[in-house]
Design brief:
Blueprint (H helix, E strand, L loop, with lengths): L5 E8 L15 H19 L4 E8 L9 H14 L3 E2 L5 E12 L5 E15 L4 E9 L5 H8 L4 E2 L8 H13 L4 E3 L2 E3 L6 E8 L7 E2 L3 E3 L2 E3 L7 E8 L4 E8 L2 E2 L13 E4 L3 E5 L1 E3 L4 E9 L4 H5 L7 E11 L17 E10 L2 E8 L4 E8 L1
Parallel strand pairs: 1-17, 2-3, 2-4, 13-24
Antiparallel strand pairs: 1-23, 4-5, 5-6, 7-24, 8-9, 10-11, 10-14, 12-13, 14-18, 14-20, 15-16, 15-17, 15-21, 19-20, 20-22, 21-23, 21-24
Helix pairs in contact: 1-2
Length: 373
């Protein structure tokens, strides 16, 4: 047994403090996989005497409906840039791709674990595929949270705090088929007794004040109606006795994607025990943020990474208990490691915050909200 003591950066309001790492943080499992894929693609492009490449959509599975392609694209573009490969949409070769949850392996054996396969293709302009690169994202090295975000999952793991990462992954696969969803008035939760919830507050176009939106259960998924011109914020609820580290991704793009400086960039928001915290927009630094604005996709934050034609908007919020120092609380001692609208940039808000260190416990809840059909 070993303690889950992954140290990461967490952003919090000034009254609480923000988060710096106790030890240098490592990249995620998805970052590692995409880095390896980028190296293979760069080597192929070099063999073709190409230093530029176009990039097309990276699409998800038909069920559950997802919109994580732009998040994969931004990671890929970053890794290719480090290797000297530039993105030019008029280039002779094109990268396209897809990601999907595997039901069986390459030998057609039924899989017990939840595995997400990422496939990238390099094609020419006639559509002929010249190179294929495949990587599988598993439960190892923090992959469970990445899987939850990629598939925009509703997951509750609060009843298995000391399970192995593999056992947690198997439980996630079961819940993928029957996602846990409980709507408590305007609060979106996984199960009724969960300590964690999310509310969406909307300032509808032409209005001055924010109003709490009433979510709907649409085929087992939480849906909130948002239209072009609306501004929204997320109210995070932590009714547990521990601090919570909460990551937020929107249309596959991490909320801190545009935070500067990049070095020491936070990854999560800190919510105090038995408290709420409003996430009002894209943090740009410790001094300012931009509101979450629903607009045409060409104006969205995901489009600033790369344009994408998905018609689905998703917000995925992952909750971890967290604590100061490396010694976990008793409850987690021995836990195993771990329409064409999009969300764009609203007006800039001056809001000071700072950074503080925390140790993460295991993923206990993932809540996904669809905001566009």
């Amino acid at each position: 047994m070993y303690h889950l003591c992954r140290i990461v950066l967490i952003a919090a309001v000034a009254a609480v403090g923000m988060v710096v790492p106790l030890t240098p943080s490592r990249g995620t499992e998805l970052d590692s996989k995409i880095s390896g894929m980028a190296k293979q693609i760069a080597a192929f492009l070099e063999s073709q005497k190409q230093t530029e490449v176009a990039i097309s959509e990276i699409t998800g599975p038909p069920s559950p409906a997802t919109s994580s392609g732009p998040g994969i694209q931004t990671r890929l573009i970053h890794e290719l840039d480090k290797l000297g490969i530039k993105i030019n949409q008029k280039a002779a070769l094109i990268i396209e791709g897809k990601y999907l949850a595997l039901d069986e392996d390459d030998n057609q054996n039924k899989l017990e674990e939840l595995v997400v396969r990422l496939i990238l293709f390099v094609s020419n302009k006639s559509g002929r595929r010249l190179k294929e690169v495949i990587e599988d994202l598993t439960f190892k090295n923090g992959g469970n949270e990445e899987i939850a975000k990629l598939l925009n999952m509703q997951v509750d793991l609060s009843k298995v705090p000391k399970a192995t990462t593999q056992d947690r992954n198997i439980e996630m696969k079961k819940q993928l088929e029957n996602p846990p969803l409980h709507l408590d008035d305007c609060k979106i939760k996984t199960i009724k007794e969960s300590y964690y919830a999310v509310e969406v507050l909307v300032r509808y176009e032409g209005e001055q004040d924010f109003k709490v939106a009433t979510p709907k259960d649409v085929k087992g998924q939480a849906f909130v109606e948002l239209k072009k011109g609306d501004v929204y914020k997320l109210r995070l609820h932590n009714d547990s006795k521990w601090e919570a580290a909460v990551s937020v991704s929107i249309d596959g793009v991490d909320a801190f994607q545009f935070f500067e400086p990049e070095k020491g960039r936070p990854t999560s928001f800190l919510v105090q025990p038995t408290r709420t915290r409003d996430v009002e927009g894209w943090p740009r630094s410790t001094e300012k943020l931009n509101e979450f604005l629903v607009g045409s996709y060409s104006d969205s934050a995901a489009a600033k990474v790369l344009k994408n034609n998905t018609k689905l908007g998703t917000v995925t919020v992952c909750f971890h208990p967290c604590w100061t120092g490396k010694d976990p609380p008793e409850d987690y001692r021995g836990a195993r490691a771990t329409n064409e609208n999009g969300t764009g940039f609203g007006k800039e808000i001056q809001k000071k915050s700072n950074v503080v260190p925390r140790t993460f416990g295991p993923l206990v809840a993932s809540i996904s909200i669809r905001y566009n059909k």
